[in-house]
Amino acid sequence: MDMDQTSLVTEYPQVKDLMSEHPIFWRNPDYGQQAELPFSQADIFDAVARWERFAPYLATVFPETAKMKGIIESPLIRLDQMQAAWENMYHQNLAGKLYLKADSQLPISGSIKSRGGIYEVLKFAEQVAMRHTDLAYMDDYRVLATEKYRRLFAKYGVIVASTGNLALSVGIVAATFGFKTTVYMSHDARQWKKDKLRANGVTVKEFDTDFSHVIPQAREDAQKDPYCHFVDDEGSTTLFLGYAVAAVRLQKQLKDQHIKVDRKHPVLVYLPAGVGGSPSGVTFGLKMILGPYVHAVFCEPTHVPSVTLGMMTGLNNHISVYDIGLDGLTAADGLAVGRPSRLAGKVMRTLLFGSVTFQDDDIYRNVAQLMDTQQIVVEPSAAAGFTAIAPVIKNVPAFNSENATHIVWATGGNMMPESERLANYQKGESLIK
Ligand SMILES: *Cc1c(COP(=O)(O)O)cnc(C)c1O
């Protein structure tokens, strides 16, 4: 340990557990305090309204969204068989009820990125259209799919840097509008994602370097071109608010399924965190819409606890997992981000209940169990929530109440090719004793 590390450990003893790659439960000491927040409920409803304006357009250009009338939303699924399997696997009784928020089934990217990524492209398209045409807010936005608008959008570019799912959501939608769309990816990004993007007319730029060097390159290239919009996964407020809309939709799903949220009926929500943008956006929405009795817990790999480290030390994006000697390696695709976003820790300071770190083997077991018990396919990152329940109820016995609801946010998986799906499943099966 160098001197900086020693003083960090003295001040925040759990940093030592992070350094040793032991799974931890961190309870946020600032949870529930009063704080000035950078957004309000009005910002969420502004985003809700924008999604609704675009719904007829989306239903037209993405036929798979037509049966939902262009509203991109995932089901909330009761996991009764998985709950029994989970209790066996963890030798732990779960008194409340277990649910899955299946963002793995969201159209277009098959992941939670369909919320933030698509929303940011919609907002950019609307801005361009409003500035250069007579488009009115009350118009039928299907007009945006016409040649006139495609010619307009073709003058503009969209750039995003991503290891995977964000590229799919931003890339496919931006290219569909007609924007010149470029995705910056590191060499280790999955081949099938690159292929799918290219098939949709997206330019894929591959880099031989670590992903942390790809983002600055993408940002720099975008800044050189005034007609180009850069989707900034490390701090975009638009992405953030796109994710927050999930809470408005979940409120209705909870009501429809007669799930209460009040002092006697706590709702725990378990969210995998990479850069921290999607779980923070969702959590912000949940706290604004559902109030004090919904509690969010972030889940991160023991090798990449970037958001946990940032929040625990208060250093947020000014510290990375490499600074405490971790290698940043994980099989959980969407979670391999060594430094948190500029927004996540700051907004979450008083809103996040706590976080949990897990070992990769643990997510594979849950991928296989979910397949065996409920025939639901998720990617490894998306099973992270299942690893957080046991540490949470062990540390907070009041949450292991029969009135509690536990929602595992399954963040992705539906676009995986069959071969990858099978390999993940077999790996999980081999780990289940
Ligand atoms: C991106 C992603 C996450 C994490 O979202 P962040 O905004 O990076 O924290 C989790 N799971 C999956 C499947 C993802 O694609």
Explain what the structure shows:
There is one protein chain. The chain has 433 residues and is of the alpha/beta class. It contains 17 helices and 11 strands. The strands form 2 sheets. It has a 7-stranded mixed β-sheet, with helices on both faces. Strands 6-5-4-7 form a 4-stranded parallel β-sheet, sandwiched between helices. Pyridoxal-5'-phosphate (PLP) binds next to helix 12.
Report the total helices.
17
Largest sheet: 7 strands, mixed
Helix content: 40-55%
Residues in β-strands, percent: 5-15%
Shape label: globular
Radius of gyration: 21 Å
Secondary-structure topology with pairs:
Blueprint: H1 3-11, H2 14-19, E1 25-27, H3 41-61, E2 76-78, H4 80-90, E3 97-102, H5 113-132, H6 147-153, E4 157-161, H7 165-177, E5 180-186, H8 191-199, E6 203-207, H9 211-224, E7 228-231, H10 237-244, H11 246-256, E8 267-272, H12 277-290, E9 294-301, H13 306-313, H14 344-348, E10 354-358, H15 360-374, H16 389-395, E11 405-410, H17 418-431
Parallel strand pairs: 3-11, 4-5, 4-7, 5-6, 8-9, 8-11, 9-10
Antiparallel strand pairs: 1-10, 2-3
Helix pairs in contact: 4-15, 5-7, 5-10, 10-12, 11-12, 15-17
Modified residues (N6-(pyridoxal phosphate)lysine): 113
Enzyme class: lyase
Cofactor: pyridoxal 5'-phosphate
